[in-house]
Design a protein that fits this description.
Residues 4-230 form the ABC transporter domain. The chain is α/β, with parallel strands linked by helices. Helix content is 38%, strand content 27%. The protein contains 10 helices and 10 strands. The protein binds adenosine-5'-diphosphate (2 copies).
Length: 230
């Protein structure tokens, strides 16, 4: 069964812009699917519809067979992690407090939260003894991005959405972070739908690549080598 199905999805913004037109696409369980295409072709809109930051104008989006528009968006976002460029960490909260955000909202007890925070920081390569008490401004761009990934994984969501996840990281750090992220993704089996304008990133991380053109039209959906040859 597919992890996410877009079934005839369309998004027309109130100003008349058709960001996504009649999109049909399946994301497989446990795959990393890259969305690529020119700026303004509807990639972010597609991601944001998937966690209901944006409501589709038509069509259905299914998460493991369930229509996501039924039910509570907050409950949905517990099952779908979201990582964006420049991550949006809370500047006045420590690394540990940032990672503990969602567990805090869910009322996890202290011991469980502490164990989870420690595990996540280890997972993304930030030793808790060194990093837990630091503030975002005391981190490099790559370290901040790692915290963003840890925070998004806090409740072990089956699906992760990432919008230009490593775009703000310097090129040298970016490749290492991509490779580590790939390892974590395989280990956890998380299904990842991610947007990038960096074709190299799409090829390095993607199991498949969806190429969009303007108006959110799916031009091609294929494995990286096929897309490169095209
Ligand atoms: P991409 O992520 O591929 O750069 P977006 O999904 O951000 O593309 O945008 C697709 C189109 O929708 C663009 O023409 C953009 O200007 C437009 N758009 C995005 N958000 C809004 C909005 N909130 N209101 C109106 N138009 C928008
Ligand atoms: P607070 O005063 O909000 O509890 P802390 O910074 O002490 O602030 O902790 C925030 C969260 O991060 C808590 O859930 C805590 O258990 C966890 N945490 C703090 N330090 C560590 C650490 N070194 N290893 C793992 N988890 C930690």
């Amino acid at each position: 069964e597919a992890a996410i199905v877009f079934d005839g999805v369309r998004k027309e913004y109130p100003n008349g812009t058709v960001a996504v037109g009649d999109l049909s696409l399946s994301v497989r369980e446990h795959e990393m699917l890259a969305l690529v295409g020119p700026s303004g072709c509807g990639k972010s809109t597609t991601l944001r519809m998937t966690n209901r930051l944006v409501e589709p104008s038509a069509g259905r989006i299914l998460l493991r067979g369930e229509d996501i528009t039924q039910g509570d968006p907050v409950a949905l976002r517990r099952r779908i992690g979201y990582v964006i460029q420049n991550v949006g960490l809370f500047p006045h909260r420590t690394v540990a407090q940032n990672v503990a955000t969602v567990p805090g909202l869910l009322g996890w007890d202290k011991a469980r939260t502490r164990a989870r925070v420690g595990e996540l920081l280890e997972l993304v390569g930030l030793a808790p003894d060194t990093y837990a008490k630091r503030y975002p401004h005391e981190l490099s761009g790559g370290e901040r991005q790692r915290v963003g990934v840890a925070r998004a994984l806090a409740t072990d969501p089956p699906v992760l959405l990432m919008d230009e996840p490593f775009g703000a990281v310097d090129p040298a750090g970016r490749r290492r972070l991509q490779t580590e992220f790939r390892r974590i993704q395989r280990e956890l089996g998380t299904t990842v739908l991610f947007v990038t304008h960096d074709i190299d990133e799409a090829v390095h991380l993607g199991d498949r690549i969806a190429v969009f053109s303007f108006g959110g039209r799916l031009e091609q959906l294929a494995e990286p080598l096929t897309v490169l040859a095209h």
